[in-house]
Amino acid sequence: MTFNQYNFETALIRAVHKEGFEQPTPIQQQTFPAALQRRDILGTAQTGTGKTVAFLLPALHLLLAGQPNKKPRMVVLAPTRELASQITEEARRLAIDTRLQLVTLVGGTPIKAQTKRLQRGVDLIVATPGRLKDHMQRGNVRFDALEILVLDEADRMLDMGFLPDIESIVRRMPAERQTMLFSATMPTAIQSLSYRFLKNPLRIEIDTAQPPQSIQQYIYPVPRHLKTDLLLELLDNPEVESALIFTRTKQEADILTRKLREASLSVVVMHGDFRQQKRVQALESFRARKARILVATNIAARGLDIEDISHVINFDVPDEAENYVHRIGRTARVQTDGVAWTLVTPDDEPLIAGIEYLLDKQIERRILPGFDYDVPAPDWAKPSTRTLLANVRRSQSSYDRWKALAR
Q1: 246 phi, psi to nearest 5 deg
Q2: Rg of the Cα trace of the chain?
Q3: Crossing angle between the packed helical segments 81-94 and 10-18, to the nearest 10 degrees
Q4: CA angle 282, 311, 219 (to 5 degrees)
């Protein structure tokens, strides 16, 4: 199948070919016909499947078929600034030879500049819910001419507590509109949301909660006090051309970044405490290969489209099994290969059990040859009674949850 068969506007087809897209991915093949018919869509797809183009391309075609009137005709809501910026950049590339006007409305950037852009007139708004609601309250945005609403990464938006903002936004939109909701998972809350916001949607499901088969996944068991030493040894592997390393907390991200820099490694860090400009700078430095390593919290687990990440490394095991899928999905983007390593302490094993249950397979365990695993733990690394009890509670909770699912 080719993009030409869908009869998209010529300018869009030129952009598609310029981007190097040759064949539509499965999510695109199923979404394009229904979206072009202005059907509501409830889509579930794993990360890296081409979902953004799946909803953007037909939506831009429909906008070009209509008449611009300086009022927003399409809104895309995304959970994070990074994902919103990525969607906007993809839309700009696709619409480069068209008259369509776009704007990104996210926090961390001057609201006055966004207001001026809105006053000049836009066809497409890509926004985080909080900042869009802010503009609505200021009277900067009206939805009289809205035709298309897209909720991207809807499950993540619910996790981040955006439901009240989303409800407030949607109430101000015309009832007669096309709505497309995409989610990496389909919990009950998302299904309930779809009943309220969508009308007779087409259900599209593409390999949910499963990472691409092209990702090689390995677990490296290691004592807690040797995690950083093992990580440094792994990063010394010449096959690690670029690495995205995930930590559980912002503090751990900063500490690990400092240790990697002390080892003379080229590394940048990104987490929620950074202002938008610094987050963009870190991301662009990593994308341009000025930095070989990006250390991040879960803020980077979804929505960041960075080509050619050779390795994703879970320095800390994620608390939620599905976050593991989102994290490692940052490598092996759209028909490329990738490697995912996870450092696992004995306390992490119940979390790994949940991940393996979700994947329906065991992840291969590996021992790094030549690494000394018998170095005794220093006093600072020995867990306190309080820490031990907290780990037991966390482990039991995770184990019980997945055991219940197994029934």
Answers
A1: -105, 135
A2: 22
A3: 110
A4: 125
SS3 (DSSP) at 399 = helix
What distance in Å separates the CA atoms of residue 39 and residue 200, rounded to the nearest whole number? 8
Per residue in 61-78, pLDDT (tens digit) is: 999 999 888 899 999 999
Helix or strand (DSSP H, E) at 282: helix 276-287
* Of 90, 316, 337, residue with least CA distance to 211: 337
Residue ranges, CATH 3.40.50.300, the chain:
3-206, 215-375
Q: Which CATH superfamily is domain 215-375 in?
A: P-loop containing nucleotide triphosphate hydrolases (3.40.50.300)
310-351 pLDDT per residue, tens? 999 999 998 877 778 878 888 866 556 889 999 999 989 888
Distance CA 47, CA 189 (A): 20
Residues sharing a CB contact under 8 Å with residue 361, sequence separation 6 or more, in sequence order: none
Q: What is the pLDDT of residues 184-227, one digit of tens each?
A: 777 777 888 888 899 999 999 876 556 777 899 999 999 999 99
Q: The domain 3-206 is classified under which CATH number: 2.160.20.10, 3.40.50.300, 3.30.43.10, 3.40.50.150?
A: 3.40.50.300
Secondary structure class of 288 (helix, strand, coil): coil
